[in-house]
Every structure is written in C-alpha cells, then in structure tokens.
Amino acid sequence: MKKLSKLLLVLSFALSISSSAFAVTVASWGGAYTESQKLGYGDPTAKKLGVPINWVDYSGGLSEIKAQKEAGKITWDIIDVFAMDTITGCDEGLFVEFDFDKDFPPAPDGTKASKDFFAPMPSKCAVGNILYSWNYAYNTKNVSGTPKTIKDFFDTKKFPGKRAIYKSALTNLEIALAADGIKPGKGGKKIYKALETEKGVNRAMNKIKALCTDPNGGCVFWSAGAQPPELLVSGEVVMATGWNGRFFNAEIGEGAPIKQVWDGQGLDYEYFVLVKGGPNEADAKKALAMMTSTEGLAGSAKYIAYAPWRKSSLKVMAAGEPWYKDGKTNMVPQMPTAPANTKNYFLVDPIFWADNGTELGEKWEAMKAGL
Amino acid sequence: MSSETGKILTTDGIPLEVSLKKAERKNKIKAFLLVAPLLLFLLITYIFPIGDMLMRSVDDKMVTEMLPKTFKSMEKWDGKELPPEEVFESFYLDFQKLVEEKRDGKLSTQLNYTKNGFKSILKKLRRKAKNFEEGNYKEQIMAVHKRWADVEYWRAIQRRAPAYTSQKYLKGIDMYKNEEGKIVSVEEDRRVHRILWLRTLEIAFFVTLLCFLMAYPIAHLLATLPMKYSNLLMICVLLPFWTSLLVRTASWMILLQQQGVVNDFFVMIGLVADDSRPEMMFNKTGTYVAMTQILLPFMVLPLYSVMKTISPSLMRAGKSLGGTPFVAFWKVYFPLTIPGIGAGCLLVFILAIGYYITPALVGGASGTLISNQIAFHMKSTLDWSFASAMGLMLLAGVLAIYWVYNKLVGVDNIKLG
User: Fold this and answer.
1) Other C-beta atoms lying within 10 Å of the C-beta of residue A123
2) What pTM did the predictor assign?
3) Which residues of B touch A360 (CB under 8 A)?
4) Judgement on whether residues A146 and A244 belong to the same structural domain of the protein
5) CB spacing of A90 vs B105 below 8 angstroms
6) H/E/C letters for each residue in B395-415?
7) Residue A88: domain span
8) Superfamily assignment of B193-413 in CATH?
9) Which of B192, B378, B380 is the closest to A362 by Cβ?
10) What is chain A's pLDDT, residue by residue, as a tens digit (371 residues)?
C-alpha cells in the first residue's frame, strides 16, 4: 500500500512537471474573444506544433504577471495585452524583446513581417494580434436623418438626445478634438500634437463638457464593453461610442437596429507578449510565430469582427468571402482596417497615454466631478 | 517559619513550586501549539501583507540607488532655476550606466509617477545619447526635448532623492513637497483625490444610513413573526446573497434607467410625462439604490440576531408601567438593540468604502470612488507604492471610525450574533 502511494506520488509529480513543460499557456480576456483566438489560430497551431495550448482568462493589467515574477513562479508564457502594457512591461523587464523580422515569418508574397504589419510596434516586446476601433453607432429608430461624421456625434441640434461615452479620458479627448475641427492627419499625429499642449487638452475637455451639460444632449458614461449596444437598444441614449466588435455582434448577430459610423474613429490594438522566463519559453516563441502568421491572424476574424494586424491577412479573407462563420456575411467591410473605413481615423497613441495617462486621468475626473 | 520547613517538597525532593511550574509550562506549550497554526495564519495573511504594503508605500531606495551621482550633485542646487552643468553631467553618466544594465525603463516608469511626461523624453534621450560628444551635457540634453529645459522636470527628479518618502501619502490628498520643503496643493484642475475621498465617505455614509433605516423594521419583523413566516422572510433577505453581484447590478440598470421598467410604469399610470422621465440611474441615486440593496443583508443579520434575544415581556412591562408604545420602544427596546446597530453599521460602512464595481457601472459621472483609483494604480500604472499608500489611508480611516465608535459606544457592545 505504502509503495503504491509512493509510486502514485512520483507519477503525479512527474506528470505535473511534464505537463507544464510541454504545454504553452496563454492568458487572454476570455469570452467570445478567447473563443475566436482558440478556434482561429490556437488549435491549428497546437496541432501543427504538437504542443497543447492552454488558454486562461485574466482581466487585463500587469499586476498578475508582476506578482508571479516577484513570487518566483511564473505560470504564463504568452499574454494578450493592451499597447500601454507592452510598454510598461517591456520597461519593467517582464517580457522578451523580439528581433522582429527574424522571429516572425514574412507574408506569403515575401513581404517582411515588419512591413506587413499595419503600424510599427509600440515596443520591442510586442507583436500585433488584432485591431479594433472605438467608433460610434446610433439607433436607427431613434435618430431622424443619418449621422455621417464625428461632428454629428457632438451636434445636439441636428441629432438631439443623450450620448454614451467611455468613462475615462482615453479616446474621448481625441474624438472631441477631431469633432472640433482638427484633422487627425496621418495616423492621428496632429491630434496628439494638440493634446501635448495645455490648450489642446482644455479644448477637448470643454468640448466634452459642452456635450454633457447641453440640455438637448447629456452623457451616460459606460464602463463595460457590453453596455454601449445595450444602451442603444433600450433607447437610453441615441448615440454611443464603443468597440466595433460589440456593435457588429448586436447588428449582425442579434439583428438590432444599430448602425456604425466610420469617421474620426480611434484604432486601438491588442498585442501578444512573450513572458521572460515563462514555463515553456522556447515552444511559446514558436507558437507565437505561427499564431501571428498571415493565415493564423486571418483565422480569428472568422469568428469575431476584429481586424488581423497583418495586411496580407485581409487578402486571404477577401479571397475567402463570405468569411464570417455564419457563411453569408462578408467580413472585409466590417474590418476597422478596411480601406473604406480608414478615410478619417486616428491610431490611439500608446506612448502618449503611457506618458500622460495619469495626469490626464486626474484632470478628466476633476472635470467629471464638475458636471 | 524557617525557609526550609516553608518549602513543600514533592516525593522526589524538588520543591512543589518548581515542579508545578514545570507541569504548567508543558501545558502552556501545548496550548500555544494549538493556537500556533492560527497565529501563523494571521501573521502570513494579515500582518505580513500590511507590513509589506507599509514598506512599499514609503520605500524609495530604488530610485536613490539608480541615480547616485545625480542626487549627490543636486545637493548644492537650490531648485530655483535650471540646475548647473554638473548635475546634467552626472545625470547623463548615471543614465548611461542604467542603459547598459537595461534598467533605464524602470527609471522612466518611476519618474513618470512623480511627473507625467518622463517616459517619452527618457526614451528619446536613450536614442540620442549614443551620439553625445564629451562635455557641455547641459546643452546636448536640453536639445533632445524641450521638457529637459523645463525646471519642473528637474525638480521632479530631485524629489525622488530621499530613500524613504512620504510623497505617496501627500499625493493621496493632492499635495506635494515643493523645492523649498513646504507642503502645498497641486494645481486646482488636478485635485481629484480629495473629491474622491469625500465622495467615497459620502456614499458609504448614506448607504449605511439607508441600510439602517430599511433593515431595522425588517429585522424587527423577522424577530417577532412566528417561525414559519420568519423563515420564509429570512430566505428573501438572504436570496440576494446567492445571486452574483454583477447580475444584481445589471438588473437595477434595466429597472431604473430612463427607458427602464420603473419609468415605463410611472409613465403608464400617468405619474410623469413621457418626455420628462426622472433620471434614477447613472448618477448617485443609482449608486445608493444598488449598493443599499446589495449591502442590506449585512445590516439585517446582526440586528436580527440581537433582536431575537430581547424578550417580548420587556416591552409589555414598559407599557404596563405607563409608557406609550413609542416611549416603551425608545426607552426599553431601542437601547437593547444598540449592539446590533453598531455591528451592522460598522460592517456596512466598511464594506461600502471599499466598493467600486457597482458604482462604476451605475454611478455615471460620479461613479469613480477611491477604490477605483487604487485598482487603476494596481493594474494599469503598476504604481504599487501609491496604491499601497492609498490602501493604508483607507485602512487608517476605518480604524479611526472604529476608534470613534469605541469612544462613543464601546466596542464590547458590538454583537454579531
């Protein structure tokens, strides 16, 4: 009996070592998003590589990985993070720095990886995963006329009714300036230049303040991604900013009377990072290269309306339309990176927000307290 | 009596006193070993983390060690105008060393906590510093970015010189130590923490009050009804406990929003006009309603357990001695329930000042509380020392309230059941 239990102990120990040594663990946001990642490129990669990929949920931020590192027991290999976190984590030495063109495969036509990605990476530790956009949508039943531009979002005369905007300053200051007449310029450079100055920040804050205190307008602040479509459908607000994937789900998936406007929107990104000293760094690196390849990234867009980072992935999708999993919806026009949708947009600048986020956040809260 | 006869000896010749102590010591050790796991548990899960938080919130050795030369040369600088060439040179030397060790990122994160805007200018400096010529570092550094020619940024670096600091606590109440060593407030449009502290206290206070007003009659009813009804009622009180917090919050949103069920009902019965529906959600009203409902059981249960022990004959005696029902209630019943009120109020208040998910969802523009700020610095900026400082300030606030309560009512009076 004793021998048996000892044997079992040794066996389970060996098993726990081997399972952690052979699997790659990816931390992501959970829900439909992780599902799209798992089906789109997680499972195919695991099959090709012969290494199981485990998906665990987390709620964003770097506190968990920092705590894991401080405790000396890192359990994650790859993390799906915001742009700002790639910068902070890279600076803190939590993530592996990449040699981009060497570590990631070129596009099918031979374009180097660094040229194939939609924009340059914010830090040496990041590799692009999806792009989503902060655009606004309206309820077609409660709005007379057709809002077409970002100016219309702030135009309470033409389109009276409450608006829903994000609870913190991120992207709100940018759209305020875009609506106030600043042309975003290439990738939104002009907006961020204006926001570098005190005057520009005040101009943006005043624009928001005017909208929220307008008797014909008014603001509802949303904090969870599911709120904007819900607020639109219930009639609580007439227009709402939000994430395009959520609006897509409400419009196509549930048939809600919602229409998105592609003007003055902010393109934001999700990245993968490779944890330094993770349990299975070598395999994780290989898996990451496969997951972010042209076919890999295109795969996830089959299940969710977020755009793959690689430009070459869009071509794969266009050739395979209707790409959406329901077999009848064309996905390329739904992509925030599609040429028709990127006539007037800005790229959310993670470096600007990493630099100024705290102080702008304080000013924003103070402004909100005075509403 | 001589000492020899005074000592009582045991059979083996050892004085009884000593032998007794020996036996008792064994018992003491046994008793201690019995509580040792609990003690260890408390130490590991409670004392140690709080100690760690306290250390984090004041410890600033990291930056002190990163810029040794800079801080040394800054000792002579008065902080009025831009520092002399010497400071620029030593900063450059310190920084180059950090770049070699790949620790410059950590420095930029740390300095960015003190003053926003350091991250990008340090990155720029790293790129440009490779091509620096020897000598005249002041001009070369200032040419990298205009912020390097702004004395504010150098003052911010100077503020990080001491190895131990109270800065994070000052920042928690929107103050800082200026270059003359005086403690002053930050610019007016950035004084947000004070607003948040006051708002947190206000919301916690009113939620506690509302909970008390609603829980008292419910608890009384529970305590006086016959068992078969009171059990059913008890289940109704406890039911929210078994539902997820987010579900409850979301259902309040559906009920109370302007196009929500309650407002639809008001319009239907003609209480309000369709175009002037009252706003009951996405403002403080929403927060009060949702939080009161969520925290109500924490008030009902201690009140109930205390009321259950009050004999109904006491009220009868009060009335038969000539008191009106109100006098009997006020003079006899109410004072007996004070231990339950104390326990319930403390419990609800302490839980309420730490709440942040519910207010963020239903509170609209006023939905940010101090705990949101703590979570923000824990998760996004990774400024754990600031988060620790604010956490400890919150803890100090709770302890202060506990102390006041002890002075006014007496802690021995608290009764949880």
Assistant:
1) 24
2) 0.82
3) 116
4) yes
5) yes
6) HHHHHHHHHHHHHHCCHHHCC
7) 2-131+269-339
8) MetI-like (1.10.3720.10)
9) B192
10) 456 556 555 555 555 444 445 899 999 988 888 999 999 999 999 999 999 999 999 988 888 999 999 889 999 999 999 888 898 888 888 999 999 999 999 999 999 999 999 888 988 999 999 999 999 999 999 999 999 999 999 999 999 999 999 999 999 999 999 999 999 888 899 999 999 999 999 999 999 999 999 999 999 999 888 889 999 999 999 999 999 999 998 999 889 999 999 999 999 999 999 999 999 999 999 999 999 999 999 999 999 899 999 999 999 999 998 899 888 889 999 999 888 898 999 999 988 998 898 889 989 989 998 88
Instruction: Give the closest-approach CA distance of B72 to chain A in angstroms.
Output: 26
Radius of gyration of chain A (CA): 22
Residue pair A302/A40 in contact by the 8 Å Cβ criterion: yes
Q: Among partner residues A235, A355, A365, which is closest to B120 by beta-carbon distance?
A: A355
Which string of DSSP letters, residue by residue, matches B25-46? HHHHHHHHHHHHHHHHHHIIII
- Residue A358 near residue B381, CB atoms below 8 Å: yes
For residue A299, what are its two tokens? 């795969």
A236 touches chain B (CB under 8 A): yes
CATH number for A254: 3.40.190.10
| Alpha carbon of residue A114 to chain centroid | 19
A251 and A309 housed in the same domain:
no
